[in-house]
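INTERNAL AUDIT FORM
Audit reference: QA-55
Scope: verify that the stored structure record matches its stored sequence.
Auditor: D.O.
Record contents follow.
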Amino acid sequence: MTTLVQRALARFSSSDSPEKANHHRFLISLLEPLYPLARNPFFSLPEPPTASSKAVKSFYTVYRSFLKHMVSMDDKKIPWRDLATSWRLILADNGPFGSSHLQTKEGLFSALIHCGITHNSQFLHSEQHIFFDGLDDWNTIYATSRNALEDSMDGKDMEKYFCDGCAYGVWTRRSVEHASVYAAATEAPDLTSWLLNAEFPAFTQVYKLFLKGKVNRESVFPGFGPLQAYLLASDYTIAGAVKMPTYKEMGELLWSDLKQKGAMTGLRALGYTDFESAEDVADAFEKVDRMLMLVVDHVIRQPTRRDRSDAFP
């Protein structure tokens, strides 16, 4: 662990118990082997130094296998989701979050198709369709691709090619049949005004819309649970169409809707277990977030000597 990381951990763990400080160090030790991926997702696998000992060569063999495994399942495994294959594709300038499509109904439809259907699919990775002008455009592309694959895939494999039910880990009710419902959602003013208006909406507002949005009392975001709603709201936030949530908002969201999801599990694993309110969650979330942002940002950017010396006065 570098001196930079040690100083950052000391700065953010000084008010915590020794147990939490140790948990923070352990978390960073888990992330450190992945820094090459964060610095360059297209990197070449590291080679052992010339004239390395047998032990060093053995280490590099294991390390290379580990990185290959992470890259092969990057949509599920690496912590920097915008560097994983699916998100790296969807965040391209010609995708739904590019400046020309961001605040349009077509962009929203394309984002829904990605989040609810094509994320982490072979269709997305291989054919790289990331923007659709509407339902007709999606249906044409889908039919053309399906016809080209009819002789090489059976029905079950064909379905998974376009839409993997386990794209986010645990199986969820995802289907290409939801495309028409997503298209209908983009035509409902109550569900699109947040995107088309000049004033940026709050994160929680958009999250709840994706989670519970309805037209004529029917859900228009099938296949969306709390995780998918959170991730899509996050994408729009990072793209600049939604206000960045405050730590207070995040604490309330984790305490209510996402209590059994990964963020709360991670906070508990780091020793933050004495939660009695959303305020407690917000405080823990802020400590961990600030620590990670400072440590990981400096390591990924490979700071100069001056950066290193000035980072922690």
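Auditor finding: record pair retrieved intact. Strands lie at 214-215, 218-219.
Action required: none
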